[in-house]
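RETRY 2/3 - previous attempt timed out on the joint model. Re-submitting the same 422-residue input unchanged.
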Amino acid sequence: MITNKNCVIRLSRYKNALYRLQSLGFVRVFSDNLADAIGVLPSQVRKDFSLFGITGNKRGGYNIDSLIEKLNTILGKDQLQKVVIVGTGNIGSALMKYKGFEKEGISIAACFDIDPAKINRQAKIPVLPLEELKDFARANQIKIGVIATPDVAAQSALEMMLSAGIKGVLNFAPLRLRAPAEEIVINNVNLELELENVIYFVNALDKTRAA
Amino acid sequence: MITNKNCVIRLSRYKNALYRLQSLGFVRVFSDNLADAIGVLPSQVRKDFSLFGITGNKRGGYNIDSLIEKLNTILGKDQLQKVVIVGTGNIGSALMKYKGFEKEGISIAACFDIDPAKINRQAKIPVLPLEELKDFARANQIKIGVIATPDVAAQSALEMMLSAGIKGVLNFAPLRLRAPAEEIVINNVNLELELENVIYFVNALDKTRAA
DNA sequence: TGGATATTGTGAAATGAGGAACATTATGAT
DNA sequence: ATCATAATGTTCCTCATTTCACAATATCCA
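RETRY 2/3 succeeded.
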Protein backbone atom coordinates (compact mmCIF):
# COMPACT_ATOMS: atom_id res chain seq x y z
CA MET A 1 0.00 0.00 0.00
CA ILE A 2 1.29 3.45 -0.92
CA THR A 3 1.17 5.74 2.10
CA ASN A 4 2.79 8.79 0.59
CA LYS A 5 0.13 11.48 0.81
CA ASN A 6 1.84 13.84 -1.61
CA CYS A 7 2.01 11.14 -4.18
CA VAL A 8 -1.73 10.42 -3.91
CA ILE A 9 -2.48 14.14 -4.12
CA ARG A 10 -0.46 14.30 -7.31
CA LEU A 11 -2.57 11.50 -8.75
CA SER A 12 -5.66 13.65 -8.19
CA ARG A 13 -3.96 16.58 -9.86
CA TYR A 14 -2.96 14.46 -12.86
CA LYS A 15 -6.56 13.36 -13.15
CA ASN A 16 -7.85 16.93 -13.14
CA ALA A 17 -5.32 17.95 -15.76
CA LEU A 18 -6.29 14.94 -17.86
CA TYR A 19 -9.95 15.89 -17.80
CA ARG A 20 -9.03 19.31 -19.13
CA LEU A 21 -6.87 17.80 -21.88
CA GLN A 22 -9.62 15.36 -22.72
CA SER A 23 -12.19 18.12 -23.06
CA LEU A 24 -9.79 19.92 -25.40
CA GLY A 25 -9.87 16.89 -27.67
CA PHE A 26 -6.48 15.39 -26.87
CA VAL A 27 -6.14 11.62 -27.02
CA ARG A 28 -2.58 11.00 -25.84
CA VAL A 29 -0.40 12.67 -23.30
CA PHE A 30 3.29 12.54 -22.40
CA SER A 31 4.88 12.70 -19.00
CA ASP A 32 6.22 16.16 -19.67
CA ASN A 33 2.75 17.51 -20.54
CA LEU A 34 1.39 16.27 -17.24
CA ALA A 35 4.49 17.44 -15.41
CA ASP A 36 4.05 20.91 -16.78
CA ALA A 37 0.33 20.92 -16.04
CA ILE A 38 0.79 20.30 -12.33
CA GLY A 39 4.24 21.76 -11.85
CA VAL A 40 6.54 18.81 -11.27
CA LEU A 41 9.30 17.09 -13.26
CA PRO A 42 8.48 14.51 -15.93
CA SER A 43 10.46 11.86 -14.06
CA GLN A 44 8.20 12.41 -11.08
CA VAL A 45 5.13 11.70 -13.18
CA ARG A 46 6.60 8.47 -14.52
CA LYS A 47 7.77 7.42 -11.09
CA ASP A 48 4.32 8.04 -9.60
CA PHE A 49 2.67 5.98 -12.31
CA SER A 50 5.25 3.27 -11.91
CA LEU A 51 4.50 3.06 -8.19
CA PHE A 52 0.85 2.36 -8.93
CA GLY A 53 1.58 0.00 -11.79
CA ILE A 54 0.35 2.38 -14.47
CA THR A 55 2.21 1.98 -17.74
CA GLY A 56 2.18 3.80 -21.05
CA ASN A 57 3.80 3.16 -24.40
CA LYS A 58 7.39 3.92 -25.11
CA ARG A 59 7.38 6.72 -27.64
CA GLY A 60 3.56 6.75 -27.59
CA GLY A 61 2.94 8.28 -24.18
CA TYR A 62 -0.26 7.51 -22.30
CA ASN A 63 -3.80 7.17 -23.58
CA ILE A 64 -5.84 9.82 -21.79
CA ASP A 65 -9.09 7.89 -21.52
CA SER A 66 -7.55 4.78 -20.07
CA LEU A 67 -5.29 6.80 -17.80
CA ILE A 68 -8.27 8.64 -16.33
CA GLU A 69 -10.01 5.34 -15.79
CA LYS A 70 -7.02 3.83 -14.00
CA LEU A 71 -6.58 6.89 -11.79
CA ASN A 72 -10.26 6.89 -10.88
CA THR A 73 -10.07 3.25 -9.87
CA ILE A 74 -7.00 3.89 -7.72
CA LEU A 75 -8.62 6.92 -6.13
CA GLY A 76 -11.84 5.06 -5.38
CA LYS A 77 -13.82 7.19 -7.78
CA ASP A 78 -15.24 4.28 -9.72
CA GLN A 79 -18.23 4.39 -7.43
CA LEU A 80 -20.27 7.31 -6.07
CA GLN A 81 -18.97 8.43 -2.69
CA LYS A 82 -21.56 9.57 -0.19
CA VAL A 83 -20.47 11.88 2.60
CA VAL A 84 -22.13 13.57 5.57
CA ILE A 85 -21.36 16.98 6.98
CA VAL A 86 -21.59 17.85 10.66
CA GLY A 87 -22.11 21.55 11.32
CA THR A 88 -24.12 23.95 9.18
CA GLY A 89 -22.32 27.19 9.92
CA ASN A 90 -20.50 29.18 7.25
CA ILE A 91 -18.23 26.44 6.06
CA GLY A 92 -20.79 23.67 6.35
CA SER A 93 -23.37 25.50 4.29
CA ALA A 94 -20.83 26.61 1.71
CA LEU A 95 -19.81 22.98 1.25
CA MET A 96 -23.47 22.00 0.92
CA LYS A 97 -23.93 24.41 -1.97
CA TYR A 98 -20.54 23.80 -3.52
CA LYS A 99 -20.81 22.37 -7.04
CA GLY A 100 -17.28 21.02 -7.14
CA PHE A 101 -18.09 17.79 -5.31
CA GLU A 102 -20.90 16.59 -7.51
CA LYS A 103 -18.82 16.68 -10.64
CA GLU A 104 -16.15 14.65 -8.85
CA GLY A 105 -18.57 11.87 -8.02
CA ILE A 106 -18.94 12.94 -4.41
CA SER A 107 -22.48 13.35 -3.12
CA ILE A 108 -23.48 14.97 0.15
CA ALA A 109 -26.09 12.67 1.62
CA ALA A 110 -27.05 14.82 4.61
CA CYS A 111 -25.94 17.48 7.07
CA PHE A 112 -26.27 17.32 10.83
CA ASP A 113 -26.57 20.05 13.39
CA ILE A 114 -27.18 20.29 17.11
CA ASP A 115 -29.36 23.40 16.74
CA PRO A 116 -33.04 22.44 16.31
CA ALA A 117 -33.67 25.67 14.38
CA LYS A 118 -31.42 24.40 11.58
CA ILE A 119 -33.25 21.13 10.99
CA ASN A 120 -34.85 20.79 7.57
CA ARG A 121 -35.84 17.31 6.52
CA GLN A 122 -37.42 18.43 3.25
CA ALA A 123 -34.38 20.14 1.74
CA LYS A 124 -32.62 18.51 -1.21
CA ILE A 125 -29.74 17.86 1.16
CA PRO A 126 -31.61 17.28 4.42
CA VAL A 127 -30.38 18.85 7.64
CA LEU A 128 -30.96 16.41 10.49
CA PRO A 129 -30.49 16.41 14.26
CA LEU A 130 -27.08 15.28 15.36
CA GLU A 131 -28.56 12.38 17.34
CA GLU A 132 -29.60 10.77 14.08
CA LEU A 133 -26.08 10.70 12.64
CA LYS A 134 -25.29 7.19 13.82
CA ASP A 135 -28.43 5.55 12.43
CA PHE A 136 -28.28 7.52 9.20
CA ALA A 137 -24.66 6.71 8.53
CA ARG A 138 -25.16 3.03 9.23
CA ALA A 139 -28.35 2.82 7.17
CA ASN A 140 -26.75 4.59 4.21
CA GLN A 141 -23.34 2.98 4.46
CA ILE A 142 -21.60 6.32 4.80
CA LYS A 143 -17.86 5.97 5.24
CA ILE A 144 -16.75 9.59 4.90
CA GLY A 145 -17.60 12.59 7.09
CA VAL A 146 -16.81 16.30 7.14
CA ILE A 147 -16.43 18.20 10.40
CA ALA A 148 -17.45 21.84 10.00
CA THR A 149 -18.41 22.61 13.59
CA PRO A 150 -17.00 25.20 15.97
CA ASP A 151 -13.76 24.10 17.68
CA VAL A 152 -15.36 22.97 20.91
CA ALA A 153 -17.78 20.63 19.18
CA ALA A 154 -15.29 19.02 16.83
CA GLN A 155 -13.96 16.26 19.08
CA SER A 156 -17.42 15.05 20.03
CA ALA A 157 -18.49 15.18 16.38
CA LEU A 158 -15.53 12.95 15.59
CA GLU A 159 -16.50 10.50 18.29
CA MET A 160 -20.05 10.28 17.00
CA MET A 161 -18.64 9.59 13.55
CA LEU A 162 -16.39 6.87 14.93
CA SER A 163 -19.31 5.17 16.59
CA ALA A 164 -21.30 5.51 13.36
CA GLY A 165 -18.69 3.47 11.52
CA ILE A 166 -17.24 6.37 9.55
CA LYS A 167 -13.70 5.62 8.40
CA GLY A 168 -12.49 8.91 6.94
CA VAL A 169 -12.85 12.52 8.06
CA LEU A 170 -12.12 15.89 6.55
CA ASN A 171 -11.78 18.28 9.46
CA PHE A 172 -12.15 22.05 9.18
CA ALA A 173 -11.93 22.78 12.91
CA PRO A 174 -8.54 24.31 13.70
CA LEU A 175 -7.42 21.86 16.36
CA ARG A 176 -5.93 18.40 16.59
CA LEU A 177 -8.53 15.67 16.85
CA ARG A 178 -7.70 12.59 18.90
CA ALA A 179 -8.56 9.18 17.53
CA PRO A 180 -6.94 5.77 17.08
CA ALA A 181 -5.05 6.06 13.81
CA GLU A 182 -5.80 2.47 12.80
CA GLU A 183 -9.52 3.12 12.91
CA ILE A 184 -9.93 6.38 11.09
CA VAL A 185 -8.19 8.61 8.55
CA ILE A 186 -8.23 12.32 9.31
CA ASN A 187 -7.26 15.13 6.93
CA ASN A 188 -7.20 18.65 8.26
CA VAL A 189 -8.00 21.82 6.36
CA ASN A 190 -7.21 24.96 8.28
CA LEU A 191 -7.95 28.14 6.42
CA GLU A 192 -6.42 30.58 8.89
CA LEU A 193 -3.28 28.53 8.86
CA GLU A 194 -3.06 28.48 5.07
CA LEU A 195 -3.39 32.25 4.96
CA GLU A 196 -0.89 32.64 7.77
CA ASN A 197 1.50 30.53 5.74
CA VAL A 198 1.11 32.78 2.70
CA ILE A 199 1.72 35.79 4.90
CA TYR A 200 4.89 34.25 6.32
CA PHE A 201 6.38 33.52 2.92
CA VAL A 202 5.48 36.94 1.56
CA ASN A 203 7.25 38.59 4.49
CA ALA A 204 10.18 36.20 4.37
CA LEU A 205 10.73 36.77 0.66
CA ASP A 206 10.48 40.49 1.23
CA LYS A 207 13.17 40.38 3.86
CA THR A 208 15.37 38.20 1.67
CA ARG A 209 15.05 40.65 -1.19
CA ALA A 210 15.78 43.59 1.05
CA ALA A 211 18.99 41.91 2.18
CA MET B 1 15.44 31.88 4.90
CA ILE B 2 13.46 28.79 5.90
CA THR B 3 11.60 27.34 2.93
CA ASN B 4 10.16 24.26 4.56
CA LYS B 5 6.41 24.79 4.42
CA ASN B 6 5.63 22.06 6.92
CA CYS B 7 7.91 23.67 9.41
CA VAL B 8 6.17 27.04 9.11
CA ILE B 9 2.79 25.34 9.39
CA ARG B 10 3.95 23.72 12.60
CA LEU B 11 4.84 27.16 13.95
CA SER B 12 1.24 28.22 13.42
CA ARG B 13 0.02 25.11 15.18
CA TYR B 14 2.33 25.71 18.12
CA LYS B 15 0.96 29.21 18.37
CA ASN B 16 -2.62 27.99 18.42
CA ALA B 17 -1.81 25.42 21.08
CA LEU B 18 -0.03 28.11 23.10
CA TYR B 19 -3.07 30.37 23.06
CA ARG B 20 -5.13 27.52 24.47
CA LEU B 21 -2.57 26.85 27.19
CA GLN B 22 -2.37 30.55 27.95
CA SER B 23 -6.13 30.81 28.34
CA LEU B 24 -6.01 27.87 30.74
CA GLY B 25 -3.65 29.88 32.93
CA PHE B 26 -0.36 28.16 32.15
CA VAL B 27 2.79 30.25 32.22
CA ARG B 28 5.47 27.83 31.06
CA VAL B 29 5.46 25.03 28.55
CA PHE B 30 7.85 22.20 27.67
CA SER B 31 8.68 20.81 24.28
CA ASP B 32 6.82 17.61 25.04
CA ASN B 33 3.62 19.49 25.90
CA LEU B 34 3.67 21.26 22.57
CA ALA B 35 4.68 18.09 20.79
CA ASP B 36 1.72 16.27 22.22
CA ALA B 37 -0.61 19.14 21.45
CA ILE B 38 0.08 19.13 17.76
CA GLY B 39 1.09 15.51 17.30
CA VAL B 40 4.83 15.56 16.68
CA LEU B 41 7.91 14.51 18.69
CA PRO B 42 9.49 16.80 21.28
CA SER B 43 12.76 16.87 19.35
CA GLN B 44 10.87 18.22 16.37
CA VAL B 45 9.55 21.11 18.45
CA ARG B 46 13.00 22.00 19.71
CA LYS B 47 14.45 21.63 16.23
CA ASP B 48 11.81 23.95 14.78
CA PHE B 49 12.45 26.57 17.43
CA SER B 50 16.17 26.24 16.97
CA LEU B 51 15.80 26.87 13.22
CA PHE B 52 14.10 30.18 13.94
CA GLY B 53 16.44 31.14 16.74
CA ILE B 54 13.86 30.67 19.48
CA THR B 55 15.37 29.56 22.74
CA GLY B 56 13.99 28.53 26.10
CA ASN B 57 15.55 27.71 29.44
CA LYS B 58 17.23 24.45 30.18
CA ARG B 59 15.08 22.73 32.76
CA GLY B 60 12.65 25.67 32.69
CA GLY B 61 11.02 25.17 29.32
CA TYR B 62 9.59 28.12 27.44
CA ASN B 63 7.67 31.13 28.68
CA ILE B 64 4.30 31.03 26.95
CA ASP B 65 3.78 34.78 26.62
CA SER B 66 7.15 35.48 25.09
CA LEU B 67 6.94 32.40 22.90
CA ILE B 68 3.63 33.55 21.43
CA GLU B 69 5.12 36.96 20.83
CA LYS B 70 8.13 35.52 19.02
CA LEU B 71 5.99 33.24 16.89
CA ASN B 72 3.70 36.10 15.95
CA THR B 73 6.64 38.17 14.86
CA ILE B 74 8.03 35.35 12.76
CA LEU B 75 4.63 34.69 11.21
CA GLY B 76 4.07 38.36 10.40
CA LYS B 77 1.19 38.60 12.84
CA ASP B 78 2.61 41.54 14.74
CA GLN B 79 0.59 43.76 12.47
CA LEU B 80 -2.97 43.49 11.15
CA GLN B 81 -3.00 41.77 7.79
CA LYS B 82 -5.51 43.05 5.28
CA VAL B 83 -6.63 40.73 2.51
CA VAL B 84 -8.96 40.97 -0.47
CA ILE B 85 -11.13 38.20 -1.89
CA VAL B 86 -11.94 37.87 -5.58
CA GLY B 87 -15.15 35.95 -6.25
CA THR B 88 -18.28 36.02 -4.13
CA GLY B 89 -19.67 32.57 -4.86
CA ASN B 90 -20.10 29.92 -2.19
CA ILE B 91 -16.56 29.87 -0.98
CA GLY B 92 -15.99 33.59 -1.27
CA SER B 93 -19.04 34.46 0.77
CA ALA B 94 -18.33 31.78 3.35
CA LEU B 95 -14.87 33.28 3.83
CA MET B 96 -16.39 36.73 4.14
CA LYS B 97 -18.56 35.60 7.03
CA TYR B 98 -15.96 33.34 8.58
CA LYS B 99 -15.04 34.43 12.11
CA GLY B 100 -11.76 32.54 12.21
CA PHE B 101 -9.74 35.19 10.41
CA GLU B 102 -10.61 38.13 12.59
CA LYS B 103 -9.38 36.48 15.76
CA GLU B 104 -6.11 35.69 13.97
CA GLY B 105 -5.47 39.32 13.14
CA ILE B 106 -6.52 38.92 9.52
CA SER B 107 -9.06 41.40 8.23
CA ILE B 108 -10.94 41.15 4.95
CA ALA B 109 -10.76 44.63 3.46
CA ALA B 110 -13.04 44.03 0.47
CA CYS B 111 -14.41 41.49 -2.00
CA PHE B 112 -14.46 41.82 -5.77
CA ASP B 113 -16.78 40.34 -8.34
CA ILE B 114 -17.31 40.66 -12.05
CA ASP B 115 -21.09 40.39 -11.72
CA PRO B 116 -22.66 43.88 -11.29
CA ALA B 117 -25.55 42.34 -9.36
CA LYS B 118 -23.17 41.38 -6.56
CA ILE B 119 -21.80 44.87 -5.98
CA ASN B 120 -22.54 46.35 -2.57
CA ARG B 121 -20.47 49.31 -1.50
CA GLN B 122 -22.34 49.84 1.76
CA ALA B 123 -21.78 46.39 3.27
CA LYS B 124 -19.44 46.04 6.24
CA ILE B 125 -17.12 44.22 3.89
CA PRO B 126 -17.80 46.03 0.60
CA VAL B 127 -18.25 44.08 -2.61
CA LEU B 128 -16.69 46.06 -5.45
CA PRO B 129 -16.38 45.68 -9.23
CA LEU B 130 -13.34 43.72 -10.31
CA GLU B 131 -11.99 46.70 -12.28
CA GLU B 132 -11.42 48.52 -9.01
CA LEU B 133 -9.16 45.82 -7.57
CA LYS B 134 -5.94 47.40 -8.72
CA ASP B 135 -6.63 50.87 -7.36
CA PHE B 136 -8.09 49.54 -4.14
CA ALA B 137 -5.18 47.22 -3.45
CA ARG B 138 -2.63 49.92 -4.12
CA ALA B 139 -4.47 52.54 -2.09
CA ASN B 140 -4.87 50.20 0.88
CA GLN B 141 -1.48 48.53 0.64
CA ILE B 142 -3.00 45.08 0.31
CA LYS B 143 -0.38 42.38 -0.11
CA ILE B 144 -2.49 39.24 0.23
CA GLY B 145 -5.35 38.05 -1.97
CA VAL B 146 -7.74 35.11 -2.02
CA ILE B 147 -8.97 33.62 -5.30
CA ALA B 148 -12.45 32.12 -4.91
CA THR B 149 -13.62 32.39 -8.50
CA PRO B 150 -14.75 29.65 -10.89
CA ASP B 151 -11.86 27.81 -12.58
CA VAL B 152 -11.95 29.77 -15.82
CA ALA B 153 -11.65 33.13 -14.10
CA ALA B 154 -8.84 32.20 -11.73
CA GLN B 155 -5.85 32.88 -13.95
CA SER B 156 -7.08 36.33 -14.93
CA ALA B 157 -7.88 37.09 -11.29
CA LEU B 158 -4.28 36.19 -10.47
CA GLU B 159 -2.96 38.48 -13.16
CA MET B 160 -5.02 41.37 -11.87
CA MET B 161 -3.64 40.72 -8.43
CA LEU B 162 -0.10 40.66 -9.78
CA SER B 163 -0.58 44.00 -11.46
CA ALA B 164 -2.10 45.34 -8.25
CA GLY B 165 1.09 44.59 -6.36
CA ILE B 166 -0.28 41.65 -4.41
CA LYS B 167 2.51 39.35 -3.25
CA GLY B 168 0.72 36.34 -1.80
CA VAL B 169 -2.33 34.39 -2.91
CA LEU B 170 -4.50 31.70 -1.42
CA ASN B 171 -6.13 29.94 -4.34
CA PHE B 172 -9.30 27.86 -4.07
CA ALA B 173 -9.69 27.21 -7.80
CA PRO B 174 -8.71 23.62 -8.57
CA LEU B 175 -6.08 24.30 -11.18
CA ARG B 176 -2.46 25.33 -11.37
CA LEU B 177 -2.00 29.07 -11.67
CA ARG B 178 0.91 30.38 -13.72
CA ALA B 179 3.03 33.15 -12.34
CA PRO B 180 6.69 34.01 -11.88
CA ALA B 181 7.62 32.33 -8.62
CA GLU B 182 9.95 35.17 -7.61
CA GLU B 183 7.12 37.67 -7.74
CA ILE B 184 4.31 35.95 -5.92
CA VAL B 185 3.64 33.19 -3.39
CA ILE B 186 0.72 30.89 -4.13
CA ASN B 187 -0.87 28.39 -1.76
CA ASN B 188 -3.56 26.13 -3.12
CA VAL B 189 -6.54 24.80 -1.19
CA ASN B 190 -8.48 22.22 -3.13
CA LEU B 191 -11.43 20.80 -1.27
CA GLU B 192 -12.36 18.08 -3.75
CA LEU B 193 -8.79 16.92 -3.69
CA GLU B 194 -8.67 16.78 0.09
CA LEU B 195 -11.81 14.67 0.18
CA GLU B 196 -10.52 12.48 -2.62
CA ASN B 197 -7.41 11.93 -0.58
CA VAL B 198 -9.43 10.83 2.44
CA ILE B 199 -11.40 8.48 0.22
CA TYR B 200 -8.23 6.95 -1.18
CA PHE B 201 -6.75 6.21 2.22
CA VAL B 202 -10.01 4.79 3.56
CA ASN B 203 -10.20 2.42 0.61
CA ALA B 204 -6.53 1.57 0.72
CA LEU B 205 -6.65 0.77 4.44
CA ASP B 206 -9.74 -1.32 3.87
CA LYS B 207 -8.01 -3.39 1.23
CA THR B 208 -4.92 -3.79 3.40
CA ARG B 209 -7.04 -5.05 6.30
CA ALA B 210 -8.94 -7.45 4.05
CA ALA B 211 -5.67 -8.99 2.90
C1' DT C 1 12.00 -2.94 -44.08
C1' DG C 2 15.37 -0.75 -41.38
C1' DG C 3 17.31 2.88 -39.02
C1' DA C 4 16.78 7.14 -36.34
C1' DT C 5 14.51 9.10 -32.60
C1' DA C 6 11.45 10.12 -28.97
C1' DT C 7 9.63 8.49 -24.83
C1' DT C 8 9.01 5.28 -21.24
C1' DG C 9 10.38 2.65 -16.96
C1' DT C 10 13.56 1.89 -13.42
C1' DG C 11 17.81 1.50 -10.74
C1' DA C 12 21.02 4.42 -8.55
C1' DA C 13 22.42 8.97 -6.58
C1' DA C 14 21.27 13.16 -4.26
C1' DT C 15 18.62 15.75 -1.35
C1' DG C 16 16.18 16.94 2.59
C1' DA C 17 13.28 16.20 6.47
C1' DG C 18 12.51 13.90 10.72
C1' DG C 19 14.08 11.27 14.78
C1' DA C 20 17.51 9.71 18.22
C1' DA C 21 21.03 10.69 21.31
C1' DC C 22 23.73 13.19 24.22
C1' DA C 23 26.39 16.93 26.11
C1' DT C 24 25.06 21.11 28.47
C1' DT C 25 22.99 23.77 31.92
C1' DA C 26 19.32 25.64 34.87
C1' DT C 27 16.53 24.38 38.77
C1' DG C 28 15.21 22.67 43.14
C1' DA C 29 15.92 19.71 47.13
C1' DT C 30 18.70 18.40 50.99
C1' DA D 1 26.41 24.89 48.94
C1' DT D 2 26.25 20.78 46.59
C1' DC D 3 24.26 17.33 44.08
C1' DA D 4 20.79 14.99 41.49
C1' DT D 5 17.74 15.75 37.92
C1' DA D 6 15.05 17.45 34.22
C1' DA D 7 14.87 19.88 30.12
C1' DT D 8 17.05 22.23 26.27
C1' DG D 9 19.90 22.72 21.95
C1' DT D 10 22.49 20.64 18.57
C1' DT D 11 24.89 17.08 16.15
C1' DC D 12 24.58 13.01 13.80
C1' DC D 13 22.13 9.42 11.61
C1' DT D 14 18.42 7.24 9.20
C1' DC D 15 15.03 7.02 6.02
C1' DA D 16 11.83 8.63 2.55
C1' DT D 17 11.22 11.23 -1.51
C1' DT D 18 12.86 13.47 -5.43
C1' DT D 19 15.90 13.77 -9.22
C1' DC D 20 19.12 11.99 -12.50
C1' DA D 21 20.51 9.01 -16.01
C1' DC D 22 20.26 5.54 -19.16
C1' DA D 23 18.87 1.13 -21.13
C1' DA D 24 14.87 -0.64 -23.44
C1' DT D 25 11.55 -0.15 -26.97
C1' DA D 26 7.62 1.57 -29.75
C1' DT D 27 6.77 4.64 -33.46
C1' DC D 28 7.66 7.18 -37.54
C1' DC D 29 9.81 8.08 -41.87
C1' DA D 30 12.63 7.19 -45.77
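Chain B touches chain A through 63 residues (CB under 8 Å). Closing ticket.
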